[in-house]
Every structure is written in C-alpha cells, then in structure tokens.
Amino acid sequence: MIRRWAGPIGLAVLLAVVTWFVTLSRTPETLMATAVSRLGKAGMNSFAHSPLATSKSRAIVRPSPDLAYSSCPFDLSRGALVVTVEPVPALYWSLSVFQANTDVALVRNNVETHGRPITVVVAQEGQVAPAGAEVVRVKGARGVALIRVLVDDRAHFPAIDAARHRSTCRVLATG
C-alpha cells in the first residue's frame, strides 16, 4: 500500500520544493518590476516628487507621514544614470539606490555628507562613467533611486519641496 503512494508523494514533495524555490528566487525581481512600473508612470530616469503621505498613499509601500519622497525609477539600457541630490532645509534627508532584485546598492545622507550635495553615477558592469565620479554598480538594468526628507513641521514643507525639486536624475550623456 505504501509503495503505491510513494511515487505520488515523492512527486508532490518535489513539486512543492521546486515551487518554493522558484517563488523565493523570483519574488524580489517581480516586486521591483512592479515598483518601477508603478513609479515609472510619471516618467523613467527622472525624479517625481510626491506630496506628503496620507492614509491613502501607496506609491511607496507603507509611506511615513513624516517623510517627503522623491523617486526616480531608472532603466540603464540606454546608459548610466547621474543622480544629484541638492541639500534640503531639513534635519535629515537621504538618497537610497535599489537595484533590480530589491537590494540596496547605496545609502547616503546629509549627516555623512555634512549637508553637501550628493552626486553618484548608477551603472551596470561595463557601462562607462566619468573619471573621478562616485560609481554605484548595480545588477540589472532597472531599479529606483529614492530621496527621503524628514518633514518635522508641515509648515516647513513648501521650502523643503522647492529644494528637493532641484535634485536631478538623468541618463549620462555619451559622446
């Protein structure tokens, strides 16, 4: 009796293990593709500056009502990307770069840079970057550069919003 069920049980276990493995290995890329697609509706390779979060906001997963978000979904298939974050009049602001598998490739903040601008070149292996540039090598052509700014008082948001609009995200000019 047990021998009759051994084959089907073994096959079921094998299918479960394969399904589990495929799900775990593909989920990060699927999540990032969804995020890039959702954020990219405003345009690829350029920053979109979101209003302050409300209870209905969901472009960023679980957004904080104390943070202003600027996102640049990127596609490096046309070349490397230059990301420049200008100083913002806030206690804390940061730049994070997420690669195609959702891993964080870079995090910089105003405390580390002493309030100076942050400029990085986001590139895949083999893509050219200007000499002397800080280069962030990512796996996969797509990802997201995300600026977060602490808004400790909503009355300060207009000045913060104006300053963050000076940040740029663009494909590196070649030639």
Keywords:
single chain, 175 residues, alpha+beta, 5-stranded antiparallel beta sheet, 4-stranded mixed beta sheet, 2 helices, 9 strands, 29% strand
Please characterize this protein's 3D structure:
The protein is an alpha+beta fold and 175 residues long. 26% of the residues lie in helices and 29% in strands. It has two helices and nine strands. It has a five-stranded antiparallel beta sheet, sandwiched between helices. Strands 7-6-3-9 form a four-stranded mixed beta sheet, with no helix packed on it. The radius of gyration is 21 Å and the shape is elongated. It starts with a helix and ends with a strand.
Main sheet makeup = 5 strands, antiparallel
Q: Beta-sheet strand percentage?
A: 25-35%
Order of helices and strands: HEEEEEEEEHE
Spans of at least 5 consecutive residues whose pLDDT stays below 50 are none
Structural class: alpha+beta
Q: What would the average pLDDT be, to the nearest integer?
A: 85
The outline comes out as: elongated
Number of helices: 2
Total strand segments: 9
Q: Tell me the helix content.
A: 25-40%
- Going across the biggest sheet, name each strand in turn: 1-2-8-4-5
Strands, helices and their partners?
Blueprint: H1 2-39, E1 48-49, E2 67-75, E3 81-85, E4 93-98, E5 104-109, E6 118-123, E7 135-137, E8 142-150, H2 157-164, E9 168-171
Parallel strand pairs: 6-7
Antiparallel strand pairs: 1-2, 2-8, 3-6, 3-9, 4-5, 4-8
What is the compact description of this entry?
The chain has 175 residues and is α+β, with helices and mostly antiparallel strands. The protein has 2 helices and 9 strands; from the N terminus they run αββββββββαβ.
